[in-house]
Amino acid sequence: MRIVEDDLKVFDEMLHSPPLPPVTPFNQILGQLVRLKHYSAVMPLFKQMLLCRIVPNECTLSIIINCYCHLNRMGFGLSVLGKFFKLGLQPDVITFAILIHGFVLDNQVPEAARIFTNVNIRTFPVHQENLKVLLL
Q1: How does pLDDT run across 18-48, given as a tens digit for each residue?
Q2: Which of 31, 54, 89, 100 is in Cβ range 3.0-4.6 Å of 84 for a Cys bridge?
Q3: For 56, which DSSP code?
Q4: SS (H, E, C) 71-102
């Protein structure tokens, strides 16, 4: 728990330090909380980032999708995918792998298969590394 408390303290200090740091250090803290399986702790931090006008990037949004997947909130995960497009960002193969994994965790295998088959091969060239990520 000490690590989580330290992460939350650093996050709060970053939010209140002028000038605001870029999004990357915030992503690092969110990622650390995810690795510790504190998915629900990430969501209010993300909301605070948005309130402070810290613009999320692809990594941030993938972290949030991952949290929703592990919280069995796939509808919210898909809505974050929509935010990618609204912000003009391009989801990558990792983002789609997270969604596929989330649907499998939620016993929605047909939906996972639909996403897998709809991943545009021209956008994501099929390399051995990509297939490994998608098939995890």
Answers
A1: 899 999 999 999 999 999 999 999 999 999 9
A2: 89
A3: P
A4: CCCHHHHHHHHHHHHHCCCCCCHHHHHHHHHH
The pLDDT-based confidence of 11 (bands split at 50, 70, 90) is very high
Omega cis (within 30) before 56: no
- Contact partners, residue 71, CB within 8 Å, separation at least 6: 39, 40
Residue labelled with tokens 């609204």: 86
Q: Identify which of 51, 52, 49, 50 has the alpha carbon closest to the alpha carbon of residue 26.
A: 49
Q: Which amino acid is at 8?
A: L
Question: What span, in angstroms and rounded, lies between the C-alpha atoms of 2 and 7?
Answer: 9
First and final C-alpha spacing in the chain: 29
Query: Could you tell me which of 66, 26, 28 has the C-alpha nearest to residue 46?
Result: 26
CA distance 31 to 63: 7
Tokens 């969501």 correspond to 43
